[in-house]
């Protein structure tokens, strides 16, 4: 074999090895680009109430997914892992902070794991006022001393005094088959412990009736994270106690058969997105997702302002009249007692 032939054979061998190496690398890259099982699942159509999360192994410890103003606290289905999560949750947040987090998710402590994800603020405000979906000021209510409004769409209530927001919180309103009446109503009578007319086993602490003929009222009861009541307006215990003291009752004529003056005005409005993603989950993408604008609130309230002010004025006159009559009666008894 000549020297020239040996050189040609050497270069041919190098070329063959190079081509084989390229094809092998191309094959490996092609296999690596195939989606894994977890990636295939993540690329499928998401459930309307789900959130975007990175795929994690089932055995991975529960963690908070940092998204910005609000974060997602994923809750595993396995009961043992839930216990582990509760320990982490309790260690990370104080009792008041846990209360606030659950309230934002329309949950009470009894129903704390009645969800697969908790929406958690990056900074906890235990008063909840930093997360209010309601406007802080409504000039349209300047002349209305007390006012309560319930939003069906976001399952939340708000309290205004002369147009200033003084409190807001979560609620669980009537389920789809037993929805709460919408529109303007007024606070009627109240009772610290009422018995449900639907089931006598249901005890309703700090019940405040707002629709006497339909038996609708607000009171403390379970908040499971969705509309679940038989038309009443469920509240957390602290909120039920607060509203029990805040709102004014009706004033009845002698004998109690007719109303002499109405109590605090209450409006229930809107509709819940039945079967769709829970509204507060949208906060993970947009911290203003649940906000109700001043314009929308004005549109809801405007048709009822004249009626509310009229009833308020009447109640003040009736209350003053009763107060004057009682004072006169007391003075008369004192005079009679002195003379005797």
Automatic annotation (TrEMBL):
<keyword id="KW-0808">Transferase</keyword>
<keyword id="KW-0961">Cell wall biogenesis/degradation</keyword>
<dbReference type="InterPro" id="IPR050979">
    <property type="entry name" value="LD-transpeptidase"/>
</dbReference>
<comment type="similarity">
    <text>Belongs to the YkuD family.</text>
</comment>
<feature type="active site" description="Proton donor/acceptor">
    <location>
        <position position="219"/>
    </location>
</feature>
<feature type="active site" description="Nucleophile">
    <location>
        <position position="232"/>
    </location>
</feature>
<keyword id="KW-0573">Peptidoglycan synthesis</keyword>
<keyword id="KW-0133">Cell shape</keyword>
<comment type="pathway">
    <text>Cell wall biogenesis; peptidoglycan biosynthesis.</text>
</comment>
<feature type="region of interest" description="Disordered">
    <location>
        <begin position="31"/>
        <end position="55"/>
    </location>
</feature>
<dbReference type="Pfam" id="PF03734">
    <property type="entry name" value="YkuD"/>
</dbReference>
<feature type="compositionally biased region" description="Polar residues">
    <location>
        <begin position="31"/>
        <end position="45"/>
    </location>
</feature>
<feature type="domain" description="L,D-TPase catalytic">
    <location>
        <begin position="146"/>
        <end position="269"/>
    </location>
</feature>
<dbReference type="InterPro" id="IPR038063">
    <property type="entry name" value="Transpep_catalytic_dom"/>
</dbReference>
<dbReference type="InterPro" id="IPR005490">
    <property type="entry name" value="LD_TPept_cat_dom"/>
</dbReference>
<protein>
    <submittedName>
        <fullName>L,D-transpeptidase</fullName>
    </submittedName>
</protein>
